[in-house]
Amino acid sequence: MEHLTAATIATLAFRKAFEKSIDKITEATWNKINNLREKIWQKLRGNLEAEKALAAAEKASKPDLDLVAGYLKQEMEWDDNFTQEVQTLAREIQQDIDINTIQGQNVQNVYGGEAEQNNANNTNAPVIQGGSGHNITFN
Predict the structure, then answer these.
(1) Helix/strand/coil (H, E, C) string of 49-83?
(2) Domain locations in the chain?
(3) Residue 92: closest CA among 23, 12, 20
């Protein structure tokens, strides 16, 4: 299984501050994000420079997020158990976000034997309609 970088993990943990457009994320996913953020805070607590960067990253400071990623990388190199915990949680968050992003992109409606499919990602995509006794052939 591929390892996620400290920068990726830090971005996932502080994503809410940087990507306010993610409105499809479930409450369960936000709870995971908060849990990841708390694990990072717990691990870096006591390092005054790291705490300053964390506080600024919470307020959407990109340069401070980069500093947090550096501190996080260092901790991940030193503590394999911590690395395993944040990697696992970050993968779950990433998977949740990917699933929530994909949901609702292709919609198929069937009315009285007639089907209609729309692709929400590509509004220029053709609408495919079929009905009883109609054949649709894709080449």
Answers:
(1) HHHHHHHHHHCCCHHHHHHHHHHHHHHHHHCHHHH
(2) 6-102, 105-139
(3) 12
